[in-house]
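User: Predict structure, ligand S-adenosyl-L-homocysteine.
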Amino acid sequence: MNKPVVHLVGAGPGDPELLTLKAIRAIRAATVLLVDDLVGDGVLRYARKSARIVHVGKRGGCASTPQAFIEKLMAAEALKGERVVRLKGGDPFVFGRGGEEAQHLRACGVDVQVVNGITAGLAAVTSLGAPLTHRDHAHGVMFVTGHARSQDAAMHWPTLAATAAQGVTLVIYMGVATVESLQRGLLEGLPASTPVAVVQHASLPSQRQLLSTLGDLAAAVRREGLGSPAIIVVGDVLHAANAIDLGVPASLAA
Ligand code: SAH
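Assistant: Predicted complex:
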């Protein structure tokens, strides 16, 4: 028998046209698929009719499947000889615990093959027509989470703001729930006029977004009723956003 293997596959931000050819090949070959919440249904049409599809997210209002159970199930199915694909939203190694899953599988003697996906932060910024870097505005990008495991591990937003102020675009995942506190922290190191954007359901027909300023961020999120899953972008690259389509405030349309 071949060595057992699990493919950790990035399903991209939702639009099936953003899947890689490698991802489609792996999905087609799978006999068992463990699928995250944020994976769009359009992606699953590449699965075989006979494949067993296990939704391990919070669909249908049920509690999400415990991480330890998912890890055990993946390893057990691979050890039985199934062709296992773990489909994860975006890229498997950008948040979303892909690293923990790979460690567990290797510890069980299961090989891990990773297929990159387009991470939500990239898709969100691109959908606004803005670049992530720009020779005039930004010399780097930081991908950070607004949702830390514990208070101790939480981001120190004033420090990040100081780095962003040197010309680094800030792309924040899972930040909507904590938008007030991250706004407060960022304002310690960045001007209130810094452009921000929030993009919900990037790349999907249901995409919604807003463009505003850091000083107005939390109020704008509330006003527009944007919620998870969403990406918050902070930085001067947003000056290049598609201002007319988005109805950007006149103060930003420089
Ligand atoms: N591995 C994923 C991220 C998982 S963490 C990736 O690379 O994209 C989950 C968070 O990702 C969500 O809370 C949200 O902040 C972001 N996210 C995922 N899909 C998204 C989408 N289509 N639009 C906006 N944000 C998304």
